[in-house]
Write a structure and sequence with these properties.
268 residues; alpha/beta; 8-stranded parallel beta barrel; two-stranded antiparallel ribbon; 8 helices
Length: 268
């Protein structure tokens, strides 16, 4: 099992793989965080293609060919575990050759052919709960992945949409989804999006990221996914939700405090 219950699982990195230089800059900061906080299990995450943007004008990243080359270099240089998301079944095997964890985007969490392809790679699968699903319905998603051979599945909460450009995080989700998987993750930065609220550009409420992350840990989440960037306001996507990577160490320090308390009182 890749997940280590003795460590707090942290998935972090820039939303889009904008360039090799940007990825390595973020990795330098995350390496320092990992060294300062040995109680975290750090997995580096970035997307080579943001394929579900609101507008055709939105930035998407460097693409799979260049992106996998950069992720391979990153893994070799920093000895990070790495993950990225796939959007098409034919991407699964190539991504699995580089990545330790494959992520399934929320909008695609019910796509059977995609779930079958990623499950058959033998990698750990991190699957986001669709904004349109209740946490109870994730049982069917997890069962699909297991049916096709996935042995370790990490469902991820990222808020539920009720329309009108907002998401709401139900803290019951972590207890509910732990019935179907022992590892449940909270996507803190995507959960503060205001979907469609920026006239073709993602907007969000970054000021709530930390509070929701701490709440999720108190509610029983095993790990947190944060998108971090050297200069969020200049990011090609999700800038309004990403955290400044220079401040990330303090957030991790606080997350560990909540995680330790939750371990003392248990998950029941």
């Amino acid at each position: 099992m890749l997940f280590d219950e003795q460590q707090l699982l942290i998935i972090a990195g820039p939303c889009a793989l904008e360039s090799e230089a940007l990825v390595f800059e973020v990795a330098d900061h995350l390496q320092e965080v990992r060294e300062n906080f040995p109680q975290i299990q750090l997995i580096f995450k970035t997307s080579f293609d943001k394929a579900n943007r609101s507008s055709v004008k939105s930035g998407r990243g460097v693409g799979m060919e260049e992106g996998l080359i950069i992720l391979k270099k990153l893994k070799s240089r920093y000895k990070f575990l790495v993950t990225t998301d796939v959007h098409l079944p034919e991407q699964a095997e190539r991504v699995a050759a580089i990545c330790d964890v494959i992520q399934v985007p929320a909008f695609l969490c019910r796509q059977t052919d995609l779930l079958a392809a990623v499950a058959k790679t033998g990698r750990v699968i991190s699957v986001k709960k669709g904004q349109f699903l209740s946490p109870h319905e994730m049982r069917h998603v997890i069962e699909k992945l297991q049916y096709f051979g996935a042995e370790e599945v990490w469902p991820m909460e990222r808020g539920a949409t009720f329309g009108y450009n907002n998401l709401v995080v139900d803290m019951r989700s972590f207890t509910i989804m732990r019935q179907f998987s022992p590892v449940v993750i909270f996507d803190a930065t995507h959960s503060v999006q205001l979907p469609g609220g920026g006239d073709g550009k993602t907007v969000g409420e970054r000021q709530f990221v930390e509070h929701l992350a701490y709440g999720a840990l108190a509610a029983g989440a095993n790990g947190i996914f944060f998108e971090v960037h050297p200069d969020p306001e200049r990011a090609i996507c999700d800038g309004a939700n990403q955290l400044a990577v220079r401040n990330f160490g303090k957030i991790i320090e606080n997350c560990l405090k909540f995680w330790r308390v939750r371990r003392v009182i248990g998950h029941s």
